Amino acid sequence: MKHIISALVLNKPGVLAHVAGMFAARAFNIDSLAVGRTDDPNLSRMTIVVIGDDRVVEQVRKQLAKIVTIVKVQDFAGQDVVARDLMLITVSCPAEKRPEIQALIEMFMAKVVDIGPKTVMVEVAGPESKIEAFIDSCRPYGIKSMVRTGTVAMARYVRGRATKETNE
Amino acid sequence: MSKEPSPPSAPARKPGSQVIVDTLVEQGVEVMFGYLGGVVLPLFDKLYDSPIRFIIPRHEQGGCHMADAYARATGRVGVVVATSGPGATNLTTGLATAMMDSVPLVALTGQVRTELIGNDAFQEADTTGITRPITKHNVIVKDPQELAPTIREAFYIASTGRPGPVLIDIPVDMQIAEVPVTPPGKVSLPGYRIRTHGHARQISAAARAINEAQRPVLYVGGGVITAGAAAELRALAKKANLPVTMTLMGLGAFDQTDPASLDMLGMHGTAYANFAVQECDLLIAVGARFDDRVTGHLKTFAPQARVIHIDIDPASISKNVRVEIPVVGSAKDILAELTDAVEPRERAEWFARIAAWKQRHPLQYDRQGSGIKPQYVIEELWRQTDGQATIVTGVGQHQMWTAQFYRFRRPRQFISSGGLGTMGYGLPAAIGAQVARPGELVVDIDGDSSFNMTMNELCTAVQYELPVKVCLINNGYMGMVRQWQELFYGRRYSCSSLKNPDFAKVAEAYGAVGVTVTDKADVSDAVARMLAETRPCVFDFHVDREENVWPMVPAGRSLHEMDGLDIFEMA
């Protein structure tokens, strides 16, 4: 099962290596990892999608919390979250296929960001299922290249309960 | 051009190397271990005039083990220094040893000049990269003003929570740079929080489970020693009437001469400890981590037991075994609160069963044969020291026999590499322990193969007049490897027999005392001589070569499925 784990980390060298090394050393599987700045220049946010049963993910969360440069760890399991991926994908697109592909792009509320004589580059954002569906739909035309950011996520506002982040 | 006077408020400045030494002194460091090299010369220059005593090993690994054993013997933070590149890589075995056994250690390594980092400079290695998985925390200092706060943080991290080694990599230009002197500030580590107080509801749940239990067992690891909780453990065991078994790292946490002691459990544990764990209805784990050498086959481990787990490291809980009642916090506080909350119980039936197991399956060996049995040497050492010496070991058969036949009485008395199983730990660790306990009896019970790995440190013992005693259990094999080859590889002793030197002569060449003992009749006198020796010494006991460690739970089997229980019953 996939879990989305969000970690607030000190913006210091070596933190990413530490996280990656810990996952490798303890044989945990990373499905995706996204890192970016936050509003606080001292902190970065890592969003890690982990595959494993509850017990494995509990270990992942605890082992992450143990790393001194990791400030807070949160497992989004069981929470109402907004989770998004961003993808750039270049699809083979000869002139005669353009109307079809254009329709597909509109259906997915995707955006054309570049166009070549025989290809089109599309930007798609959304939940992972939407991204996967778009990839499947493009496959018959021929995927030239694609890149994904990995999932980022944030918990929705719940009345009367602040977003809970743990650091054991 | 006129010279402007410096503003009156300008702070005094001093070189980074002086800041390092001053901060170490401020942290209470009295002794350091380590080895010189190009990029730590500024630091050593300042150590020359410092009040800190410095012990130079013959290899950085030895220095790291010395600092580690110093920490284990005292409970204080051990400090080791090494130069960049090979100096730092030589520390790695020692750091990993300390990491696995949760030993508070601060390692300072030199690094090439900041502007050379990443250029494959002479003696450059990515020290923080290499040591990241084998330290609790590590950091490279790239701003000389960060030296003092980083060192303070390192001592704090190393010694609190679940202790461990912290490495600070210091480029040589950081040591040379002039730094303004600033007063010590508070340690600020937003990502490092420790829960010391156990949750009250969990503690009362644990107390209730203990009160309800018919057949409880306390299973105690090194965490109890680290927490300084031996007295609290004893109080709980006495009040609630609980039998106590210990892991290798836990030996000394509970007096083994106490009738409630089940001694060590696990692969080479006692039959009565392993039977008790398999039969218990409540297992109370304190500062232990359910290591595979303890549990045997996990699925059948303590099959009837509810499990309480008291540990300061939340990641240890439910890592290997599902825990019903976890209590995160310091063992010292939690055991004290638990003692208040439990009720006395007699548990006569349970203790009678344990007594029967003890009577039927005591630890034993063949006392009649003509050769020297390794167990006999250790038993004799135990007898003549009244079980009071500080005992250090290498890794292998001799380590297990020591754990079985030297009955430990107090915390920090037994110093051994448990988690990592580092051969060669013995002699340098004995030196570190002797530095920590001047004038006290420190014996390294070592194996010939373990001793071969680090015996150059005899030189260190001689130089600093540290009268460590090496009690060599010499069977001419990598004994434990040979035992596995005998049992699981059809006695095919592939590569497990090495040609040894004459250890007594080696000892003499180093300026120590060397004695060879080949006759069983001489063992008692030889042990007496060894204990009376005022110089570092090596007593080389040539023991029965193919003696095995019994009992044994073969890897993957259940804890109660021990081999070797009936070996002496036929006699």
Mean pLDDT of chain B: 96
Q: Total number of helical segments of chain A?
A: 4
Runs of chain B in which pLDDT lies below 50 for 5 or more consecutive residues are none
Percent helix of chain A: 25-40%
* Structural class designation of chain B: alpha/beta
CATH superfamily of the largest domain in chain A: ACT domain
Structural class of chain A, by secondary structure, is: alpha+beta
Q: In the residues of chain B, how many domains can be counted?
A: 3
Number of helices of chain B: 22
Note down, in words, how this protein is organized.
The complex is a heterodimer of chains A (168) and B (571). Chain A is built from four helices and nine strands. Chain A is α+β, with helices and mostly antiparallel strands and 168 residues long. Chain A folds into two domains: 2-75, ACT domain (Alpha-Beta Plaits, 2-Layer Sandwich), CATH 3.30.70.260; 82-152, 2-Layer Sandwich (Alpha-Beta Plaits). The model of chain A has no long low-confidence stretch (mean pLDDT 92). Chain B has 571 residues and is an alpha/beta fold. Chain B has three domains: 13-180, 3-Layer(aba) Sandwich (Rossmann fold), CATH 3.40.50; 200-360, TPP-binding domain (Rossmann fold); 374-542, Rossmann fold (3-Layer(aba) Sandwich). In chain B, strands 3-2-4-5-7-6 form a six-stranded parallel sheet, sandwiched between helices. In chain B, α8 packs across α13 (331-341) and α15 (374-384) crosses α16 (397-405). The longest helix of chain B has 15 residues, at 60-74. The termini of chain B are far apart. Chains A and B meet through α1, α2 and β4 of A and β6 of B.
